[in-house]
Amino acid sequence: MENTTLYVSDLDGTLLNSRDILSARTLALLNDLISRGMRFTYATARSLVSARRVTAGLCTRLPVIVYNGAFIMEADSGRILDSSPFTEEECRHARTALEGFRLHPLVYAFAGGCERVSWQTAFENEGVRHYLRQREGDPRLHPLSSPDELYAGQPFYYTCIGQREDLLPAFEAFRADGRYRCTLQQELYRPEYWLEIMPAQATKARAARKLQKRRGCERLVCFGDAFNDLPLFRQSDAAYAVENAVPALKEAATGIIGGNDADGVALWLSEHFHASV
């Protein structure tokens, strides 16, 4: 039956349009389908704080996958249901490596029971400033004037924003180390690149399969647009790339659907969910 399928969508470039919001049509279609019993959630590289902002109005009844799979969380309460953190040794090694490459990351960590994003203000570039402008008022932001506290607490995610040629050596080093998973890709609609470093087990694929098992769903169907969706595509029973997706994801997809500015995911779900009930 249809209600044994878990549907998981990426946000940026997939469910969100090019204005980084859910269109009125997507919001209405998804809320209607969810009210009819569709098991739907999202998996994103964003934090829960950021994801909540861009999905305002979406009646999310299932837990959500954030930080590229590092956490499964309750959307309303923020309670962590599952996590894949760095070990202490991995944190020490990552810090040494990043300092060796003279990179100055945004460090996502839990400290004193609170989530925070720390960075050194002396090393802000335009990409970092754009990131901060998009998150004005975010209680997680923790600017620092010195590096002493940068890696404090329990880090679980590192992001370096800059030019591709400056980030590439670190990307190649972390990619070759089985303790980590990392991505290097250009930000949507921006010139700078993001190097994101996560624990090896922190993947959307792993988190989605765990959530599928928790909810007793027989099938997993996903939607995406970018390289970091590839592991999820490979683990899903069916996977659909939006028209604006990168070529590698289209090649791995079960099919190609409408783009993120054409409500592709919501329209596909509306057509196929209703056809099954």
Q: If you compute it from the alpha carbons, what radius of gyration comes out, rounded to the nearest whole angstrom? A: 18 Å
Which class of secondary structure composition applies to the elements?
alpha/beta
List unreliable stretches of 5+ residues: none
Distinct helical segment count:
10
The proportion of residues forming helix, as a percent range, comes to 25-40%
Mean pLDDT: 93
Strand arrangement, major sheet: 8-7-6-9-11-10
Can you summarize the main beta sheet? 6 strands, mixed
Distance between the termini: 8 Å
Please give the number of β-strands: 14
Shape: globular
SSE order = EHHEHEEEHEEHEEHEEHEHEHEH
* Strand portion: 25-35%
Label this structure with key terms:
277 residues, alpha/beta, five-stranded parallel sheet
Give an overview in words.
The chain is an alpha/beta fold. It is 34% helix and 26% strand. It has ten helices and 14 strands. It has helices spanning 11-15, 24-35, 48-54, 88-100, 126-133, 164-175, 204-215, 230-235, 247-252, 264-276, and strands at residues 5-9, 39-42, 64-66, 71-73, 80-83, 106-111, 114-120, 141-144, 154-162, 180-186, 193-199, 219-224, 238-242, 255-257. The strands form three sheets. The chain has a six-stranded mixed sheet. The chain has a five-stranded parallel sheet with strand order 2-1-12-13-14. Strands 3-4-5 form a three-stranded antiparallel sheet, with helices on one face. Helix 9 (247-252) links the parallel strand 13 and strand 14. Helix 2 (24-35) packs parallel to helix 10 (264-276). The longest helix is centred in the middle third of the chain and has 13 residues, at 88-100. The radius of gyration is 18 Å and the shape is globular. It starts with a strand and ends with a helix.
